[in-house]
Automatic annotation (TrEMBL):
Biological role stated in the UniProt entry: Part of the outer membrane protein assembly complex, which is involved in assembly and insertion of beta-barrel proteins into the outer membrane.
InterPro entries, A to Z: BamB, PQQ_b-propeller_rpt, PQQ_rpt_dom, Quinoprotein_ADH-like_sf, WD40/YVTN_repeat-like_dom_sf
Gene name of the record: bamB
Domain called Pyrrolo-quinoline quinone repeat: residue spans: 75-275, 289-379
Coiled-coil segments on the chain, per record: none
Family per record: Belongs to the BamB family.
Organism: Denitrificimonas caeni
Subunit structure: Part of the Bam complex.
KW Membrane (keyword) present: yes
NCBIfam families: assembly_YfgL
Transmembrane annotation, as ranges: none
Protein name (record): Outer membrane protein assembly factor BamB
Membrane topology label: Lipid-anchor
């Protein structure tokens, strides 16, 4: 199974890069055209976070709890920073292959590792609270509601651990797709429900107390004659607002679901492995080919599409103020208008690329580069 997953990653990398089947020659990223900046991105602070994302396809995402930002690198260098100054409050060097993180909440910092361990640290001190083994690699941040820690593993299982001790409370079994992308989205956890997207394009909702299913909904049906053509992972993570659960699959659809029933309220063809943003009644998606698209939730029609970042392997979209921000493989942060998708600013962040979706908190934009550079930005 692991070999198949690795083969799938190679195939998808070729598709995304726009590899020509005739010439076998990889097409280069779309060259960037000069833009007229309409806003100024002010760098409030920056710091280095060890080895960053490492050489594998990791998406280690920072997280904020109150006024503290938590971040880890691939080697287990975990730091708590004052989110306004970047000053380190504590740092732990776990010397572990971290592949899932960071999850925060209820006084805990949560990480997952390549060898299938979940680690809970004290958010105030960085000291170990507990460590627990799960069924396979953890490639996305665990999530908690203070009562249970929910982990999604690479083998498509959803596991509930006791937040106080790390002991397994329940496990929700799923049969993974024959081939899938390397990675999973992070589960979403509310007081009573855990949501997750699977390699089979299913979205599931389970009871956090016992792990019992509440509903499941398939956002797309695999098509094609080969298993490569039938890859439909929901890998970019889910987005939950008061009335809508947003999901997008690779080679499938972007959809808005009723979080109570799982009913599909609207959907549109799309292919993405990096997630969704939302604002002004629109959903924003970074497509696998590099297109950034705004979709009207009422009609499921595209309000605008920006194709100027083709083959640049862009990150998921972060919505802040009146803008949408995405990073690219060359390390540029691009800021687009929510109104019409035009570029309003651009800034080079990390020469090794920007894979992680930027994090927006209270008008601040936190951008974590593949090479470990972490930058806090505001609009001036």
């Amino acid at each position: 199974m692991k070999r198949y997953k690795y083969m799938a990653v190679l195939a998808v990398a070729l598709f995304v890069a726009g590899c020509s089947s005739a010439s076998k020659k990889e097409l280069k990223p779309q060259p960037l055209e000069k833009i007229t900046a309409e806003i100024e991105l002010k760098k409030e602070w920056s710091t280095s976070v060890g080895a960053g994302q490492g050489k594998q396809w990791n998406t280690l995402t920072p997280a904020v709890d109150g006024d503290v930002l938590f971040v880890t690198d691939v080697k287990g260098r975990v730091s708590a920073l004052d989110r306004f100054t970047g000053k380190a409050l504590w740092t732990r060097k776990l010397k572990l292959d971290v592949s899932g993180g960071v999850g925060v909440g209820s006084g805990m910092v949560l990480l997952g590792t390549l060898d299938g361990n979940v680690i809970a640290l004290n958010a105030d001190t960085g000291e170990d609270l507990w460590r627990s083994s799960v069924t396979s690699e953890v490639l996305a941040a665990p999530a908690t509601n203070g009562d249970v820690v929910v982990v999604q593993t690479q083998d498509d299982r959803l596991i509930g651990l006791e937040a106080a001790t790390g002991q397994q409370r329940w496990i929700y079994e799923n049969t993974p797709a024959v081939l899938s992308l390397r990675g999973t989205g992070a589960p979403l956890v509310t007081d009573y429900v855990a949501y997750a997207g699977l390699s089979t394009a299913k979205i599931i909702a389970v009871d956090t107390q016992r792990g019992l299913p509440i509903w499941e909904q398939r956002v797309t049906v695999p098509t094609g004659r080969t298993e490569l053509e039938r890859i439909v992972d929901v890998d970019g993570g889910l987005l939950l607002t008061d009335n809508t659960l947003y999901a997008v699959s690779y080679q499938g659809r972007l959809a808005g679901l009723d979080p109570q029933s799982g009913q599909v309220m609207w959907q549109r063809e799309a292919s993405s492995y990096v997630g969704v943003g939302e604002g002004f009644g629109n959903a924003y998606v970074s497509l696998a080919d590099g297109t950034v698209e705004s979709v009207d939730e009422r009609s499921a029609t595209a309000m605008w599409s920006n194709k100027d970042l083709l083959r640049r392997e862009i990150s998921g979209p972060a919505v802040f103020s009146s803008y949408v921000a995405v990073g690219d493989k060359e390390g540029y942060l691009h800021v687009l208008s929510q109104v019409d998708g035009r570029f309003v600013a651009r800034k080079k962040i990390d020469g090794k690329g920007l894979r992680v979706q930027p994090l927006v908190v209270g008008g601040w934009l936190y951008v974590y580069g593949n090479g470990g550079k972490l930058v806090a930005l505001t609009i001036k």
